[in-house]
Amino acid sequence: MLRFKDFLRKGDFRVPLCTACKETIWPPFETCPICLSRTIFRRTTKRGILREFSTTFTSETPQQFGIVELGGVHLLGSVHGFGISVGCKVILYECGIDNNGYPFYKFKKCP
Ligand SMILES: [Zn+2]
């Protein structure tokens, strides 16, 4: 998890890949949980598909968030833009680690 967070802290989203069995490892681990080999952190596409979404009204302005399938993994993040629907294409435009130490992902609808 350490290398993953180091990359993410810099806004560089990467997905771990096992160097031996070539499996995508998600959630991220330093070693492969299948064969215990070392993982490398590979840059992936920033374009994904919105699989589910909802709107939260807990803040002053309503905010949308959803589950995005991207590079073989699923991420929960905020989704910005109008006309969002399940199955639409979105792009990861910002990611990182917030002040509480939690990862965040921000998506917007592809034009
Ligand atoms: Zn493996």
Please state roughly what percent of the residues sit in beta strands, choosing from under 5%, 5-15%, 15-25%, 25-35%, 35-45% or over 45%. Answer: over 45%
Strand order of the largest sheet: 3-4-5-7-6
Helix content: under 10%
The SS-based structural class is mainly beta
Order of helices and strands: HEEEEEEE
Identify the bound ligands: zinc ion
The average pLDDT value, as a whole number, equals 94
Alpha-carbon Rg, integer: 15 Å
Descriptors for this entry?
5-stranded mixed beta barrel; 7 strands; two-stranded antiparallel ribbon; mainly beta; 111 residues; binds zinc ion; 1 helix; 2 domains; OB fold (Dihydrolipoamide Acetyltransferase, E2P)
Characterise the protein shown here.
This protein is mainly beta and 111 residues long. It folds into 2 domains: 2-43, no CATH class; 47-109, Beta Barrel (OB fold (Dihydrolipoamide Acetyltransferase, E2P)), CATH 2.40.50. Helix content is 7%, strand content 47%. It contains 1 helix and 7 strands, in the order αβββββββ. The chain has one helix spanning 2-9; strands spanning 14-18, 39-43, 47-56, 63-70, 73-80, 89-97, 103-109. A 5-stranded mixed beta barrel has the order 3-4-5-7-6. Strand 4 and strand 5 form a beta hairpin. The mean pLDDT is 94. Zinc ion (ZN) binds at residues 18, 20-21, 23, 32, 34-35, 37.
